[in-house]
Write a structure and sequence with these properties.
The protein is built from four helices and two strands, in the order H-H-E-H-H-E. By secondary structure, it is mostly helical. It has one domain (2-103). Helix 1 runs parallel beside helix 4.
Length: 110
C-alpha cells in the first residue's frame, strides 16, 4: 500500500499521504476540473466513470487495509492467505494503472 502512495507522490510531486493524497492527485472531475493525474483521457462518460472507480478503489484500499495496519499493532490485524493474495493482486493492478496514468495540464477541459 505504501508503494502506491509513493508512486502517486513521485508522479505528481505532492507530499500528502493516504486518502488526502489520492483526492488531491486524482480528484476533481466531480467538480469539472481535471485531476493532476488521469487514468485515461477523461473524454467520455465511461472514461470518467472508470477514473472515478479506480480512484475510489485506491481510497477504499487505504481506508480498509493501509490505515488499520499503520495505526494498530500487526498482531491485531488478522488476514488469511487467500485475502492477502487477493489484496496483492488488486495492488498490482493499481500499480500497473498508475504506471500508465498521465499528468494533466490545468487548461485541459473535461
Amino acid at each position: 500500500m505504501k508503494s502506491l502512495a509513493e508512486k502517486i507522490r513521485q508522479k505528481t510531486g505532492l507530499k500528502e499521504d493516504g486518502v488526502r493524497l489520492i483526492e488531491q492527485a486524482l480528484g476533481g472531475i466531480e467538480s469539472n476540473r481535471p485531476p493532476l493525474l488521469a487514468f485515461n483521457k477523461l473524454e467520455t462518460c465511461s472514461e470518467r466513470s472508470e477514473h472515478l472507480g479506480l480512484m475510489n478503489l485506491l481510497k477504499g484500499l487505504f481506508m480498509a487495509f493501509r490505515n488499520p495496519t499503520a495505526h494498530e499493532p500487526k498482531i491485531y490485524w488478522p488476514i488469511n492467505e487467500q485475502d492477502a493474495l487477493d489484496l496483492l493482486s488488486l495492488i498490482s493492478l493499481l500499480h500497473r494503472r498508475l504506471d500508465e496514468a498521465v499528468l494533466t495540464t490545468p487548461s485541459k477541459g473535461i
